[in-house]
């Protein structure tokens, strides 16, 4: 018998999220049932709830930064036991057979990974996310949260953390790499900490200097306001890697001008509208304009272990689920330091 759990759902692009119930499937032989304790609020939840990325199937329960405790395991589960502290990120399954899945890049599965919400599970049922009391996931997509990382500050690592960790590793951030993080929000504040722990020279590019002190404390060596046109003149051609986390459309050419020869700007922010790029922003310094999405399961575990080892976690503001609509407005106003996390006990 599927289990009914309480949740918070978006029912249209314009209505506030409201309480609901959803069904979670029976625990199959390879499944893990997780009692969710905390669910981070990612800007992607807002894009999806508001239908900004194309047709959203309503009602939808969003949330893909999930931390909790194992409540039940299937008969063939080997890696987890009841009581383990675990997490689930943006994916809950993939084909498991393509070359990307086989090498641990499930996020680039040729059939498309099955997203934690807004996807369709292998059982044919639409997936529903973390703003809920429990979730059932195949053990292959469950992460272990290391001791020493509290569940509330670990939850945002499952999306914000891995989304910055993966490109930092892929593009080889290390001592001497000049990294700029654009936008000091949920993703950005993880990027600053991770890049700094990898030894890179980190600069924050924020709309204003309001968060400068905290940005420097998180590990940045420099901090500039993008509202000051002088910033772009001063920093021209001075970075190897620009990680762009901005959720809104930006002047892409202006940010490309910050790259040195052979530098790369990686877009992880996913704004609603297309953005244009001038050929001559790329050609004269052989710069690359790239994208990246989350990271594979193995890499996500590596990131969690890296965070525990380096004392890195999200800086969170914990809220009750009834505050979620207000929290969305504050995220949109860049008024969050630096991730809202829902205490799912408030769903009871
Ligand atoms: P967030 O907490 O809202 O952070 C975004 C930051 O961008 C804000 O804090 C703000 O930083 C800056 N910003 C916002 N509006 C801006 C504007 N109009 N102009 C310039 N800067 C602006 O959001 P998030 O959760 O970090 O997510 C950021 C984006 O990444 C979203 O689009 C999300 O969907 C996407 N995302 C992608 C992936 C992936 O796999 N690629 C994963 C997760 C999220 P300052 O206040 O410092 O300027
Ligand atoms: Zn996310």
UniProtKB/TrEMBL annotation:
Q: Which keywords appear in this protein's UniProt record, sorted alphabetically? A: Metal-binding, Oxidoreductase, Zinc
Cofactor annotation: Zn(2+)
Domain named Enoyl reductase (ER): residues: 12-342
Q: Does the keyword Transmembrane apply?
A: no
* Entries under Pfam families matching the protein: ADH_N, ADH_zinc_N
Name the enzyme's class.
Answer: oxidoreductase
Q: Which Gene3D superfamilies match?
A: Medium-chain alcohol dehydrogenases, catalytic domain, NAD(P)-binding Rossmann-like Domain
| The reaction(s) this protein catalyses | a primary alcohol + NADP(+) = an aldehyde + NADPH + H(+)
Q: Which GO terms describe its molecular function?
A: alcohol dehydrogenase (NADP+) activity; zinc ion binding
- EC number per UniProt: 1.1.1.2
What family does this chain come from, according to its entry?
Belongs to the zinc-containing alcohol dehydrogenase family.
What name goes with this protein? alcohol dehydrogenase (NADP(+))
Q: What is the lineage of its organism?
A: Bacteria, Bacillati, Actinomycetota, Actinomycetes, Geodermatophilales
């Amino acid at each position: 018998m599927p289990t009914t759990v309480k949740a918070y759902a978006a029912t249209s692009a314009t209505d506030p999220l409201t309480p609901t119930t959803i069904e979670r499937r029976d625990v199959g032989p390879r499944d893990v049932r997780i009692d969710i304790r905390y669910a981070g609020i990612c800007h992607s939840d807002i894009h999806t709830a508001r239908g900004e990325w194309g047709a959203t199937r309503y009602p939808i329960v969003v949330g893909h930064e999930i931390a909790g405790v194992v409540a039940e395991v299937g008969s063939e589960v080997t890696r987890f036991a009841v009581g383990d502290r675990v997490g689930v990120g943006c994916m809950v399954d993939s084909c498991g057979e393509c070359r990307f899945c086989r090498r641990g890049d499930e996020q680039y599965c040729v059939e498309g990974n099955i997203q934690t919400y807004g996807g369709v599970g292998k059982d044919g049922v639409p997936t529903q996310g973390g703003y809920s009391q429990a979730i059932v996931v195949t053990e292959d997509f469950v992460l272990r949260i290391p001791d020493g990382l509290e569940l509330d500050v670990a939850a945002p690592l499952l999306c914000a953390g891995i989304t910055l960790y993966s490109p930092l590793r892929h593009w080889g951030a290390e001592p001497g790499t000049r990294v700029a993080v654009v936008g000091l929000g949920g993703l950005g504040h993880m990027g600053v900490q991770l890049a700094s722990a990898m030894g890179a020279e980190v600069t924050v590019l924020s709309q204003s200097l309001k968060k400068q002190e905290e940005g420097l404390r998180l590990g940045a060596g420099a901090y500039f306001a993008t509202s000051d046109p002088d910033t772009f003149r001063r920093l021209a051609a001075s970075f190897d890697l620009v990680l762009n986390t901005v959720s809104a459309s930006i002047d892409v050419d202006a940010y490309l001008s910050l790259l040195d020869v052979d530098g790369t700007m990686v877009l992880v922010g996913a704004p609603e509208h297309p953005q244009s790029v001038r050929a001559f922003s790329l050609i004269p310094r052989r710069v690359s304009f790239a994208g990246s999405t989350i990271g594979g399961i193995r890499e996500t575990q590596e990131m969690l272990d890296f965070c525990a080892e380096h004392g890195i976690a999200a800086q969170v503001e914990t809220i009750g689920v009834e505050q979620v609509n207000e929290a969305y407005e504050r995220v949109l106003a860049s008024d969050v330091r630096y991730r809202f996390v829902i205490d799912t006990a408030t769903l009871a």
